[in-house]
Amino acid sequence: MITVLARKEGAALVIRDQALGIFTGKGFTPVDFKPELAMKLAARLHYTPVVPPLRMDEPELAQFLEA
User: Fold this and answer.
1) What is the pTM of this model?
2) Which residues lie closer than 8 Å to 33 by C-beta, 6 or more apart?
3) Domain parsing of the chain, residue ranges
């Protein structure tokens, strides 16, 4: 299960298996940031916060990012 914290066209800041990362159409890329710093970076990169965070499976997330 993946938790979506913020999204942008084609990408999302997510938590998967207790690891923070970026999810794109190419898959999951872990990042070595604390969640608070990652959310600040996401805001600077014009990601839209997802409130409340959404929990979904990988196929659902891929469809969510295409919409």
Assistant:
1) 0.87
2) 20, 41
3) 2-57
Q: What token pair was written down for 57?
A: 């499976």
pLDDT band at 35 (very low <50, low <70, confident <90, very high): confident
Tokens of 25: 């159409």
Contacts of 55 (CB under 8 A, 6+ apart): 1, 2, 3, 4
Looking from the CA of 42 toward its CB, the CA atoms found within 13 Å total 26
CB neighbour class for 4 (10 Å; exposed up to 12, middle 13-18, buried from 19): buried
Residues in the chain: 67
